[in-house]
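## retry 2 of 3
previous attempt timed out at serialization; input unchanged, resubmitting
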Amino acid sequence: EVEAGSDGTGFKSGNAGEYRTYVYGNLRRKYVKVIITADVRTKKLLAVDVKIGEVSEPKVAAKHIKLLKENGIKLKKFYGDGAYDTNEIFNVIGEAESAIKIRKNATTYRCKGRRRRHEVRKYMKLGYKTWAKKVKYGLRWAIEGIFSSIKRKFGEDLRARSVIGLLAEAMQKVCAYDAMVSYAKNAMLMT
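## retry succeeded, writing output
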């Protein structure tokens, strides 16, 4: 049983030198999008997706949640920012609690499910501050902390040139972070 949260970030590619920028001008950079789902209590990564271009974070998160359920992991609570305020996410999390920030312009008229409609009404009734305290929305920042740690430790620039190389390098940074955290926790337990 896990309390999972999901979020995405981008890594920059094409750190061209001064000469290439002078000769060719500022070329449009490719951004590699990394979307993770992690346990907000232990900061253990549960699922990772790496893509180039426009990616729908809620669709990837829904895929991650389905994958967790297929592997027999029960979802106790799901944390997400306003981007995850979609009917699809609320339908996928099922009976699990939600700590998904509802958009300011949210309405109950176009909800394709009872679950999101109920959450929108609860959010509007309580107001943001009371709602955030009640659902412990602040725990979502554990996911932001993971991204901050990865970028601080390994940098946010990717050196690879090929598309496959960019995807592999971004995935390696995330996996290396997860291995370091696991190693540190095991070392702490042994002492």
